[in-house]
């Protein structure tokens, strides 16, 4: 999608460490933006993106020993990606699409009904054009990783989906996102409430709480306290936000759970919308667009499995290492393969 940041570069670094050839795609895909979403205002920073990749390519020479670790940048036109019909962001829409349901209808999909249809479609096209051995996605977009893994599995694509940990801003822990450039100092200071809320819920899990209402109560307390604090300030000081959802879900299906299964763990995730500032002070440090654009922030924390009766710590660690979000049980895949071979 372009508008590169250190989170994107971490994917390239990981890819360069594990592969002989690395291709980077940059394409602002119109079909993952709804009719009233921010396609027109989405940051497009092509020259800066190229400079960042050139600098990274130079840095990678020292770590990989290879001149030109990034072999190519694939930046297709919309005509290339959608050759027969113009891209359609409406429902039901006209054109050729990939729909991964019910996963695409949950969480982000409830508020953005065409988003994952567009994501899955463009990824299928990219995978078909480039034919990658491995593809790299950030954990920040947890639902996206689950959907892409499901797509690869269901369509028998010969591609391994690799997940790289979320990169966060060093000063406050805000998950890196291309949309963060819209956040001025005031909204940025309040925007970290989502991560803080998820951290509070994670702490509840670590303290031994497993029931949904107990775990999420900690997150909602943090979010509500921040919201009330902003309501108590004047227009020149506050930065209001709306909570879209705070979720506690199964790591494979993303269905909401009433209690965390310690053998599987769970995914804590959430989304908030930072509303435009009501009033701007003279000399205030503003984001791109003058903090007049609503900004959607998403984040997640994976609650790791914990040892239970009949499950050793070694088994849990193995699951954490191998079992990224959305991955089916290795033994089930092995049994299916044996059956296919024998028959």
TrEMBL record:
The keyword Ligase belongs to this UniProt entry's keyword annotation: yes
Taxonomic classification: Eukaryota, Fungi, Dikarya, Ascomycota, Pezizomycotina
Any GO molecular function: pantoate-beta-alanine ligase activity
Protein family membership: Belongs to the pantothenate synthetase family.
One Pfam family named in its UniProt record: Pantoate_ligase
Catalysis: reaction(s): (R)-pantoate + beta-alanine + ATP = (R)-pantothenate + AMP + diphosphate + H(+)
Protein's UniProt name: Pantoate--beta-alanine ligase
Domain of life: Eukaryota
Keywords, ordered alphabetically: ATP-binding, Ligase, Nucleotide-binding, Pantothenate biosynthesis
Pathway: Cofactor biosynthesis; (R)-pantothenate biosynthesis; (R)-pantothenate from (R)-pantoate and beta-alanine: step 1/1
ATP-binding among keywords: yes
Enzyme Commission numbers on file: 6.3.2.1
Alphabetical GO biological process terms: pantothenate biosynthetic process
